[in-house]
Amino acid sequence: MGSGHAHRLYRHGHSPVHRLPAHTKIAAVLAFVLTVVATPREAVWAFGAYALLLAAVAALSRVPARHLLTRMLIEVPFVAFAVLMPFVAEGPRVEALGMSLSESGLWGAWNVLAKGTLGVAASVLLASTTELREILLGLQRLRMPPLLVQIASFMLRYGDVITDEMRRMRLARLSRGFTARGVRQWGVLAKTAGALFIRAYERGERVHLAMLSRGYTGTMPATDETAATRAQWTSAAALPLAALAVCLMGWWTL
Amino acid sequence: MVDTVTAADPRTDPRDEPAAPPSLEVRGLAYAYPDGHQALFGVDLTVARGERVALLGPNGAGKTTLVLHLNGILTGGAGSVTVAGLRVDPADRGALAEIRRRVGVVFQDPDDQLFMPTVREDVAFGPANAGLRGAELAARVHEALALVGMEEYADRPPHHLSFGQRRRVAVATVLAMRPEILVLDEPSSNLDPASRRELADILRSLDVTVLMVTHDLPYALELCPRSVVLSEGVIAADGPTRDLLCDEALMRAHRLELPFGFDPRSVTLPHA
Amino acid sequence: MHVPDGFLNAPVSVATGAVAAAAVAVSLRGARRELAGTAAYHGAERTAPLAGLVAAFVFAVQMLNFPVGAGTSGHLMGGALAAILVGPYTGVLALSVVLLMQALLFADGGLTALGTNITLIGIVTVVVSYAVFRALVRVLPRRRGSVTAAAFVSALLSVPAAAAVFTGLYALGGTAEVPLGKVLTAMLGVHTLIGVGEALITTATVGAVLAVRPDLVYAARGLARPLVLRSGPVATPGSGPAPRATAATSTDSAAGPAPAPAPAARPASARKVWAGGLAATLLCAGVVSFYASAAPDGLEKVAGEYGISSQEEEHGLADSPLADYGVASIADERLSGGLAGLIGVGTTLAAGAGVLVAVRRRGNAGAAGAPAAEGSGGRAENAEDGAGRTPAGSA
């Protein structure tokens, strides 16, 4: 079961990519992925160019390829989906390897695979080079509503605490001889979930009390005044700008 | 609106110093939770300025509920709470903010108290809410962390600290607000003996009124000259800690038990 | 159901992004009211810590595995549960934040598809389940059992509703020409089954919270009793213990931490709830088998269609989302196309039988595992066994 926290993506480092302010990186990744999605799927070479761009960033960030590739396995379910597409889709069909495949399905599969993979790779790169806390500050500087940033930071601060509680409850179940094998045990598991909710909510109330006790009135005191320099924005923009050039070329050559 | 205690108020408690209003004055406090459970049934308690008082009581006596009334987090029951002359009134938000600055509550679970991403930000949270900024804020944070000996951990995330360290940081988060009275909810719980002693040293070194909620009787004896017993939602006893702890019948009646082999008569008190 | 990048075209992605942003903005305002609690004056201040902790809870509970049998397990998506427990606005906020963090920290769900994912998993499930829930609670008699029944039906419907919206989005901005009618049929069929699982877990979880802290269930708040004052002498040390303060109280018999008003109607209403659940389950089974037999072109096409949704099912009824982030679990057995339908129907029947058993057991007031459960459970496991061994189509 969820050993997710061991798989947190961040990898400590001191590369130029690590040093860029988070908000420039988030903006750059978002722009990059949008550009990729907007690229016509027929411009096959363009996706190769995107992959090269990402590879260059990865090299610059000095994150090992193995780290990136294993983290990208998250998209495997969608590979399965993509593989099915040529069999399901309608329209003109082509014969390949003795099977009748839909042409539009093949293009659809290619489209999902290429864009999905590039999207995952870009996100993994972002998460590998940016600390949790930095990502939150970055979102705040990108004008995400402060309340939403607060909710996200509380979620991250207490995600571990609650997951730990869940783990202890599981140990308690196991040590009293309970193993969940099928639907018949759902009642017990649901009680765990219910207890977890009560604990989480009550902790939320206690945290709120602790905040009130120190004069909280609904807004977090601003403690972060970091701003990105023009040079930092420029280096962050290099990736999406290069991608945009590729994208325009893709439409041009169509 | 600030309700100062006037001379007409019945000041029956002889421990009150006539010069300054007591740090804390609780009168007839009763409260029931939204789920229907009534926890307080009319609490009367006065703590003079500079006193260190232990609030003793078994589990479920209503100790934590009382604590939450002291800074106006729980209200709506009967009775009144007055902090250094300022009455807790939920309708008066300005006074409430001042009450919360004056009453520094250190909660039992430091994980509840330390909600910010780093120790520094957490300690800064209170004073920043009070309007401090820049160098002044940094100085206040440093001062508070120095008081509990945690300066070098300022940039660590709280969940990377040991339990004892987290408890000390929790004390610092409150000290940073320069409170009139420090209220500690079970300060010694889950601490190993060394952390326990370190915290006691810190608390003794502070020049502040302390109300310590605990069922750790030796800790109460070590730190607080005076104790009150809260039992079943009312104050059941009040007096010098050593005398209270020596009164076996009283202790038994309120499910307060001394640890095995501990004799309050034979202990040399650091504050005596 | 986390949609990746490139699945829907750019205009639809941007449009759903706008929808999601608007919904989150509305929810930020609405959540203040929901989380205001008993004291009216601290509404806004409670939003951040409480919604944050609810988000952390949703995040954690999605890791709680509910085994279906033979190595497969499902988990909660949590939209309906959040809506019922904390209200729709806070629910949308919590799920949106969870999805945002999953996309940014674990690369689960594309960044450009974030709006789509929030719309489907965060908004549609929460809004549908809450609307159904409110409507049912209004219609049904005011009893705790009604809350449970409403929870079941609303959670059940929320999942296929999201699937239907997904199909609609795919019709607008899909990137392959898949036969939409059949996609819709397959999506609805499979997601109704997933919905049954979601509904069972949601109902049981809501029931567990109701039993302990009914005031925490957004739908069933507000029980207060008058205060009691106890006055007694204060003892001074040496004079022995004061007479127990409680003894001096005149209203003592009425005071004290009296047990919460006991849900006396519980056995009877619980039976009705389970009966309602059984009816709903059987209805679903009927609907699904109707869809399954309505596909005229033989098993091959059905297999393909269910292939699409068996992938979706991966997230709904397969391993925990965080397990996906790990490497080992990726190789887990995946339900292959054609059998997915069979398993689905089998699971539905098994779930129905399980509910029936539960009704009986409650009727007999027995808490321990009844032998009658063995038969149905065994059947479920057999059905799962057949599927579990089937290797995944690809990967």
From TrEMBL, chain A:
Bilayer topology: Multi-pass membrane protein
Domain of life: Bacteria
One protein family per Pfam: CbiQ
InterPro entries: ABC/ECF_trnsptr_transmembrane, ECF_CbiQ, ECF_transporter_component
Subcellular location, record wording: Cell membrane
GO cellular component: ATP-binding cassette (ABC) transporter complex
Transmembrane segments: 20-37, 43-60, 72-89, 109-127, 233-252
Entry keyword set: Cell membrane, Membrane, Transmembrane, Transmembrane helix
Protein name as it appears in the record: Cobalt/nickel transport system permease protein
TrEMBL record, chain B:
Domain ABC transporter: 24-257
Lineage, highest ranks first: Bacteria, Bacillati, Actinomycetota, Actinomycetes, Kitasatosporales
Keyword Flavoprotein: no
GO CC terms in record: ATP-binding cassette (ABC) transporter complex
SMART domains for the chain: AAA
GO biological-process terms attached to the record: cobalt ion transport
Subcellular location: Cell membrane
Subcellular location, principal: membrane
Membrane topology: Peripheral membrane protein
Chain's role: Part of an ABC transporter complex. Responsible for energy coupling to the transport system.
Keywords: ATP-binding, Cell membrane, Membrane, Nucleotide-binding, Translocase, Transport
Name recorded for this polypeptide: ABC transporter ATP-binding protein
Disordered: region residues: 1-22
Family named by the database record: Belongs to the ABC transporter superfamily.
Pfam families reported in the protein's UniProt record: ABC_tran (PF00005)
PROSITE patterns: ABC_TRANSPORTER_1, ABC_TRANSPORTER_2
A GO term for molecular function: ATP hydrolysis activity
TrEMBL record, chain C:
InterPro entries xref list: CbiM/NikMN, PDGLE_dom
Keyword Membrane: yes
Domain PDGLE, first and last residues per copy: 271-361
Cellular localization per UniProt: Cell membrane
GO biological process, one term: transition metal ion transport
One Pfam family here: CbiM
Listed Gene3D superfamilies: 1.10.1760.20
Gene Ontology CC: plasma membrane
TM region positions: 7-28, 48-68, 80-106, 118-137, 149-172, 192-212, 273-292, 339-359
UniProt keyword annotations, A-Z: Cell membrane, Membrane, Transmembrane, Transmembrane helix, Transport
Protein's UniProt name: Cobalt/nickel transport system permease protein
Natural source organism: Streptomyces radiopugnans
